[in-house]
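pinning this so it doesn't scroll away 📌
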Amino acid sequence: MIRIKQYDISLKEQRNNKASVKTTTEVKQNKKSTDDKSSKLKEMVEKIRKLSKSNPEEAKKLLKTLKLANKDNVISEKTVKELEDLFIKDEEATKSDKTTDIDDKRYKMNKMVDKIKSLSKSNPEEAKKLLKTLKLANKDNVISEKTVKELEDLFIKDEETKNDGTAIRSCENFSSVETRGLVDDTRMVLYGYVNQVGKLSQPMRNKKGRIFREKILAGAFKRAIDRAKENNNPIKLLFRHNNKDLLASTINSSLNLEEDSVGLRFEANIVNTTLGRDVYNYVKTGLISNMSFGFRNAIDEWTTENGQNVRIVKDFDLTEISILDNPAYKDSIVKA
């Protein structure tokens, strides 16, 4: 009996030792797992801080992932709050920039309204062009619909007066003459803004992988257009930057370009080809509504705004403008 008891005690001790070893191993494994998780989450924290300036959208996604993975509070609530505050500051700065932009835009557009009114009598054609520009640039309704309607009415009244006068003169001088003419409905005219100067682009990435935003200084487009005219270098209107997909050109005046107080305005008589008709219909039906441009020989400088890399383009040679659906500048617009 004594031997059996001793044997039982020995078995119990062995089991206890094994359990102790197993528990110690599990503790070590759990600690290693926690340490690994802590290390990974800390790396994520640093990455979020770095990306918050250069690529805020990616940083926000990472912060969401961090918060989901941080159930055990490996990263303190204070650190998480600090990361959230990074984006609140950026959003406040962006709101401030937008407010300043709207104030600048309101001032420019009010001046345009005054100019349209003054030109409506002396130079109605120029006034109509300016009104078209105003309506394109007024996406944010900075100028009220009532004011725009009043401007439109100026030309309706003038046209009614002009038509009445023309009809009377026709009756007096050609009472027995009837005239016929073919209506030219084959012209496909597109117009809009390629770029609004001084506005930041969407985030872009250069060949070295550097993320940045870009803006064009006022006057740069005018200099580029004037230089192209002097050197007889045509500027083309393309579809999606493809040189084979030519829609219009300054070489035959089917493309007209002008930099005004808003930005680079264009008007184009689209070539009557299968591609031309397709692109015209894309725009007319609203499938495509944006523009881009191609340039070379840029003179620029780099700076930072709200922690973001910004390329300021001061001068360049403009080679083409393009109709497309994924623009770097969201404020661009094309209409039929």
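📌 and the second one:
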Amino acid sequence: MYISNVLIENYKNFKELSVSTQKVTAVIGNNNAGKTNFLEAITLPLFVDEITSRSKKLVWSDINQETKDNYYDFILEKKEEIASDSVDLKCFNAIVPQVKVKLEFEYGLGEFYAIKELLSEIDPENDIEDELPKAALEYRFFCKNTKELLKHVKEVLESVSLDINNLDVTDLNKLKQNLLPIEFFEYSILIRRIYNLSATTIIK
């Protein structure tokens, strides 16, 4: 069995990356191109904190900068709606940064039962010997309660300005980490079980 595809979203310098891999894959690039970040991302779905020095609980700087900038731009653009509690929560949910790393695996028939908990789907019309179901692990780092985060954002803005409507880029730059506190985030690792095909959190 080996990793056949890596999908990374919003982790460090990777806004979105999908890479097909083989049994032996070389990672080559210039300095600061992201080689170490790529290898770190791969470990996120695989190990628990107890057996790796890299914690699965990310920090603010681990989130892709472009994704964070889009989030801050949204706050600046919607500041009046935030002040009046009229901002669309669905729109806010969509802009809150989330990190995802998904690993897909290739395996042989002899390994089927050893990894069946990782299987993403199975087609009852197909014989297993004809087409093996796909296996995958997915790590997500996400805001556990966006409604509370939005409430926190309003409180932070009000704490530095009597009139949120006068907030400008200079003000916002001083508040960036306070507007996206990691305390509101948690991680999970998802698999898809062969029997009920539903996503299951195995580490949280």
